Amino acid sequence: MVERLSIIGVGLIGGSFALAARRAGLVREIVGYGRRAANLQLARERGAIDRIAATVGEAADGADVILLAAPVGVCVALARELRPHAPADAVLTDVGSVKGGLVPALEHAWGTGAWVVGAHPIAGSEQTTVAAARADLFIGRRCVLTPTAATRPAAVALVRGLWEGVGARVEEMDAHRHDELLARVSHAPHVVAYALVDAVAAWAHGADALAHAGTGFADTTRVAGSAPELWRDIVLANAPAVRAALAEFGVALATFDDAIARGDGPALDALMGRARTARERVGGGA
Amino acid sequence: MVERLSIIGVGLIGGSFALAARRAGLVREIVGYGRRAANLQLARERGAIDRIAATVGEAADGADVILLAAPVGVCVALARELRPHAPADAVLTDVGSVKGGLVPALEHAWGTGAWVVGAHPIAGSEQTTVAAARADLFIGRRCVLTPTAATRPAAVALVRGLWEGVGARVEEMDAHRHDELLARVSHAPHVVAYALVDAVAAWAHGADALAHAGTGFADTTRVAGSAPELWRDIVLANAPAVRAALAEFGVALATFDDAIARGDGPALDALMGRARTARERVGGGA
């Protein structure tokens, strides 16, 4: 059992982790820190956190584990602020959707890689506040840990135990490999969804078209309802892989477009059939 | 009240219309015709249809309204087969996702445009069988009617009454305009979703990537689970508009990609924010 867990950023992910960890009896005390007082109060009312830390120093003080559940773009700065106030052997972990550049930066900010464990629970939605937090959010979902050569096995075991304790399927992976995979199935698809809405809206009769969209378009573009301040940073932090994924997608799309241009029904049938079959391998919520 | 309604193709849309029309007391007898005996039997067991027509002739015989709910690619051939067996003043209507080329072809096959009413209920899912049919599928959904100069107002009124009777919000629109709008919010997005899955599957580590997809990717690509034999024909029947929509999307995507290449956070933020705001105007299921 963890004596004191501090969660920095008590939104959908941080809040859900808190609710789940408490329900599973994994922690004695949960401290919450964040930018928005109203959100933190709601987190306390919902029983996600025991108390609100007024300052970064208070959040770090005596923490056994510090969970960074803030936007990717501010994690390193937060780690730097937390460091002087945290116990020397406090475990720092995160939930960021990119790991390659982030984990070494966190290790540097923490002064050592020994107690830093990069983590990415593949769960969430376009909603980001603690109001949407659920204790069962991680059950059956994957959580990727990206330890480095510097990470102490004991720190990995502790973080693994927490994620397994809230029901996630934990695996370890090289951070670069994680970013390559997630660029394909998350980061680039977010860009595609945003661009799809943007293209329709920019069209001469865009407003009329959007008004005639059905549930299919709503599904396809659901992630374009995600917060730009989160996804801007994720996409930029993983720019080379995201751009590679977009280029691959462009090639695939051109193949479909060519078949349409030729009026080639059999080719289109085969392409669509191949994609439909591949989609059966999709993990979450397929 | 319609005395006899014949539904050609009793799948998700045809079956749901039958269930809804019966519940609303809009028809006395519903006859079903289709390719798959097991599906028709299920439609009868579910109470969607009163009896199964063994032949096209039987389906047309004495019908006041014939609803073509078959794939777009076979509707004209079916209309031609039905014509000799149907009453002279039987109303022929359809549910096709494209209207521009289809409606004139149906008018031609029917020998007159007087009793042909093109219709497109904007509802459905990637499931296509009568097992998924629901009496409430059309409640609050749009249904676009595309009458031509040849269409008798009485025929339009009858078809309008049926769709309003099952809860749809009916509007009339030029068929070409309908196809331009739907290319943007339905046809091209289907192609995008298929291509997105196909690109990931074709990537060197595609299987691993798909296994790490979360609910976001599942949503974005849900319509890639749609039947290729339906969407191949829809896309080809509306090829110029679909290709125009894909080109517009390509421009939008390139704008996002440029911002990523420049590492331009503010530009990406603005683009994503603009798309997110536009998405709030999406109709169905947003």
Annotate the secondary structure layout.
Two copies of one chain form a homodimer.
Chain A: E1 2-8, H1 12-23, E2 27-33, H2 37-45, E3 51-52, H3 56-60, E4 65-68, H4 75-82, E5 91-94, H5 102-110, E6 116-117, E7 119-121, E8 142-145, H6 153-165, E9 169-172, H7 175-202, H8 206-211, H9 215-220, H10 228-237, H11 239-262, H12 265-279
Parallel strand pairs in A: 1-2, 1-4, 2-3, 4-5, 5-6, 8-9
Antiparallel strand pairs in A: 7-8
Helix pairs in contact in A: 4-5, 7-11
Q: How many individual helices of chain A?
A: 12
Give the largest interface pair and sizes.
A-B, 94 and 94 residues
- The number of E-state strands of chain A comes to 9
Separation, N- and C-terminal Cα atoms of chain A: 34 Å
C-alpha Rg of chain A, in Å? 21 Å
Pick out the low-confidence regions of chain A. Answer: none
Overall geometry of chain A comes to elongated
Mean of residue pLDDT values of chain A: 96
Order of helices and strands of chain A: EHEHEHEHEHEEEHEHHHHHH
What is the strand arrangement across the widest sheet of chain A? 3-2-1-4-5-6
Helix content of chain A: 40-55%
Oligomer: homodimer
Structural classification of chain A = alpha/beta
Strand content of chain A: 5-15%
The profile of the biggest β sheet of chain A is: 6 strands, parallel
